[in-house]
Specification:
With 228 residues, this protein is an alpha/beta fold. It has one domain: P-loop containing nucleotide triphosphate hydrolases (Rossmann fold, 3-Layer(aba) Sandwich). It has 7 helices and 10 strands. Strands 6-7-8-3-9-10 form a 6-stranded mixed sheet, sandwiched between helices. Helix 3 packs across helix 4, helix 3 (96-105) runs parallel beside helix 5 and helix 5 runs parallel beside helix 6. Bound molecules: adenosine-5'-diphosphate (ADP) (2 copies). One adenosine-5'-diphosphate (ADP) is lined by residues 11, 13, 15, 17, 35, 37-43.
């Protein structure tokens, strides 16, 4: 469902972040992206949700070639992809409920559907009782669970997570992994860039290691493979 073939990415400053990457990821997989800082992990992730365009090669997601997609079609692609960030990116003035509903309101869902779906995803992340809170009234782990709820509210086929536990303590990180696993159990593909050796070695999944812009390793139930 995600097919990258010979993908290159050179930024405007001349830095080549990806240098010929080919990989297939099937629907329902849970994949960690690991590797040293500056290796190209974020670039890899950004290409998938079309935050950046490839300089060469093809990226096909659900039969759409991102190398050729017109700008006005990007929002359609994004409906199939939920994104979770290290720093949560919740809107501070909105309640939890509104932060999640916002993702649906922009695609013109009916109020009744919005309400039903927001409450459903709050149930999935175990925070139905926090609907009226604002983000600053929640712990970091709770904020990240809300951002996961927001990412899945459109029932995307893919959830991308760029260092989702980077700002969280170890116990809270485990909670986030369990939440992502439950999202994955319902058939959603998860692609997660991480520096957490503990998580990768504890919750065994496919591991794709990127080093110097190429895939250095691709293993089912792999290890983190670096010292922290
Ligand atoms: P990682 O996520 O593994 O740390 P990145 O994909 O962020 O790696 O970066 C890969 C390389 O591309 C690095 O050399 C980085 O400095 C460079 N890079 C990343 N984003 C940009 C950008 N927007 N403009 C120029 N260079 C960038
Ligand atoms: P339950 O399904 O458990 O009865 P409710 O649907 O009554 O839960 O709502 C749970 C929480 O979500 C409550 O705190 C409620 O105030 C809040 N909530 C529901 N709808 C909205 C809304 N449109 N805007 C803000 N908060 C809402």
């Amino acid at each position: 469902m995600i097919a990258m073939k010979d993908v290159y990415k050179t930024y405007a400053n001349g830095v080549t972040a990806l240098n010929g990457v080919s990989v297939d990821i099937q629907q329902g997989e849970f994949v960690y992206i690991v590797g040293p800082s500056g290796a190209g992990k974020s670039t890899f992730i950004k290409l998938i949700y079309r935050e950046e365009k490839p300089s060469g090669g093809s990226i096909i997601i659900n039969d759409i070639n991102l190398a050729e997609i017109k700008e006005k079609k990007v929002p359609y692609l994004r409906r199939d992809i939920g994104v979770v960030f290290q720093d949560f990116k919740l809107l501070p003035k909105l309640t939890v409920y509104e932060n999640i509903a916002f993702a649906l309101e922009v695609i013109e869902e009916s109020p009744r559907n919005i309400r039903k779906r927001v409450m459903e995803v709050l149930e999935v992340v175990g925070l139905k009782n926090k609907a009226r809170f604002t983000p600053n009234e929640l712990s970091g782990g709770e904020q990240q669970r809300i951002s996961i709820a927001r990412a899945i509210v459109n029932h995307p086929k893919i959830v991308i997570a760029d260092e989702p536990t980077g700002n969280l303590d170890p116990d809270t990180s485990l909670d986030i992994l369990r939440t992502l696993e439950s999202v994955n159990d319902s058939g959603t593909t998860i692609i997660m860039a991480t520096h957490s050796k503990e998580i990768v070695n504890r919750f065994k999944k496919r591991v794709i290691a990127i080093e110097d812009g190429i895939i250095a390793r691709d293993e089912q139930r792999g290890e983190y493979g670096y010292e922290v």
